[in-house]
Design a protein that fits this description.
The structure is a single chain. The protein is α/β, with parallel strands linked by helices. It folds into two domains: 329 residues, Alkaline Phosphatase, subunit A (3-Layer(aba) Sandwich), CATH 3.40.720; 118 residues, no CATH class. Strands 1, 2, 3, 4, 5, 7, 10, 11 and 12 form a nine-stranded mixed β-sheet that branches. Strand 15 and strand 16 form a beta hairpin. Helix 1 crosses helix 8. The longest helix has 32 residues.
């Protein structure tokens, strides 16, 4: 394995792309969508196979990214300054001598209250006009213009470094991705029509949304639900190709300017995209209550490229979440030096979370089920695992920093939740309508990784697992 050299500078670039599905990328196993640029980046990076968003709400997610705060404790009426979360990412890096910046085409992100004004050198809003119809050329897409502006900004930072301002920089860039405008050319969408009988791909610029395909079909007898789903997926896949082509030019530019050789570069999804099996199809508008979420909306891509390609081609299977990315970046200025020490690669990393054992029903901790019987259960279910630095796992790829990820749909007041462990994902969704004899929530249990799309609910067959895992969500 290639290892970091002692003289490597420590810039940090994090690119977060909204609605980027892991399942649509070749590095995560997709074989029908072309994503060579992402695949090339992944091959020179550390890739995380089991990275999950812990909320579908941007404000809560960015409190996790930038404050290390669990969305399970997030309150809409609470400002970041009032929370008990760790210090902000901006303050942590600013105090280590970094210049710190936020770049985004989403104003909500540039104005987020988790950013410390005293420790942020600039908030830059990319005011890209929304296209009213698909554009004709890749260069006119929102993806391309966002990458172009980000590249110019980084080039400006590098020019300043050459003029004497050699302080390392930290840039967090957030792109709206597929969440706002689908403007990429029709030809990109048509790439994934396999034959002439396939439906025409979705051609709109507003993200489609069908909360319940079955009900949608009942409204129009002529609506072919299979074709509807295929047309939307084809269009989304075309967007993946547009994103990937712009990513290729961006990474080439960073490489030519020598940025990649001296920068920690993380690329991650923010929220996924529902393809209709069994989730809703598309993206709910802000004024509409979203349908229940499933794994494809919360399991996301994450690759971390280290300077000198340290850890290249490593795939880490352990569970991780946004708070872990927070801690990884916050720890980087110090940890970069540890990676240069040959002893790092020889010793067991004792600081890896003690809560990171593989979850099973054979743990030593006991619990009492509703039937009164004692059952071995998940270890220390009431203890939340804070953000953990992911990079020590390079010394022992079979270890992990946590044994569970708890997901809340929006905030602490939401009753739709899920918990992911190594073998299972348990979802709890409140019933909007129910009979007196029905419970107030629907519980669904899926086997991982065999049922990554959450198609076959086995909750009725494994009530023992459900009862153990629901304690984690309740806590």
């Amino acid at each position: 394995m290639k290892r970091l050299s002692a003289k490597t500078p420590t810039n940090v670039l994090c690119l977060a792309v909204d609605r980027l599905n892991a399942d649509f990328l070749g590095a995560y196993g997709n074989t029908w969508i072309e994503s060579p640029a992402f695949n090339a980046l992944a091959s020179s990076s550390v890739l995380f196979d089991s990275y999950y968003a812990t909320s579908l709400d941007l404000r809560a997610l960015y409190r996790a990214f930038w404050r290390g705060e669990s969305p399970a404790t997030f309150r809409v009426d609470q400002s970041a300054s009032e929370s008990d979360a760790p210090i902000s990412l901006f303050r942590a890096l600013k105090e280590r001598g970094y210049r710190t910046f936020v770049v985004s085409d989403v104003e909500e992100i540039t104005l987020h209250d988790a950013i410390d004004d005293d420790y942020c050198d600039g908030r830059f809003f990319l005011d890209v006009p929304n296209a009213q119809e698909p554009v004709e050329a890749l260069e006119s897409t929102r993806f391309f213009r966002n990458f172009e502006e980000l590249a110019r900004f980084i080039a400006k930072l590098e020019d300043e470094a050459e003029l004497g301002d050699d302080a390392p920089w930290f840039v967090w860039a957030h792109f709206s991705g597929w969440n706002d405008v689908w403007d990429w050319p029709i030809e990109f969408r048509e790439t994934y029509c396999e034959d002439e009988e396939d439906p025409a791909p979705y051609a709109g610029t507003t993200p489609p949304y069908f909360p319940n395909l079955k009900k949608s079909g009942e409204k129009d007898d002529k609506l072919d639900l299979i074709d509807l789903r295929q047309s939307v997926v084809e269009a989304y896949a075309g967007g993946v190709s547009a994103f990937d082509e712009t990513l290729e030019g961006f990474t080439q530019l960073l490489n030519e300017k020598g940025v990649l050789s001296k920068t920690l570069f993380a690329l991650t999804g923010v929220r996924g995209f529902g393809t209709g099996v069994p989730s809703a199809l598309g993206i709910a508008p802000e004024n509409e209550t979203p349908a229940p979420f499933y794994a494809e909306e919360v399991r996301l891509p994450l690759v971390v490229r280290l300077p000198d390609e340290t850890g290249a081609t490593v795939r880490l299977p352990g569970l991780c979440e946004p708070r872990d990315l927070y801690e990884t970046i916050k720890s980087w200025p110090t940890f970069a030096q540890e990676l240069t020490d040959p002893e790092f690669w020889k010793i067991e990393r004792s600081e890896i979370s003690p809560f990171a054992g593989k979850w099973s029903l054979d743990e030593d901790v006991e619990s009492t089920r509703s039937d009164g019987e004692t059952q071995d259960a998940i270890a220390k279910p009431t203890l939340d695992v804070p953000g953990q630095n992911l990079l020590p796992l390079l010394a022992d790829e079979n270890r992990a920093v946590r044994d569970r990820v708890v997901i809340t749909a929006v905030d602490a007041n939401s009753k739709e939740r899920a918990v992911v462990v190594n073998e299972w994902i348990l979802k709890e969704t409140p019933r909007t309508e129910r009979r007196e004899d029905e419970p107030d929530k629907i519980q669904e249990l899926f086997v991982l990784p065999d049922d990554r799309y959450c198609v076959n609910d086995v909750a009725n067959r494994r009530r023992d697992v459900v009862e153990d895992l629901e304690r984690v969500i309740a806590d």
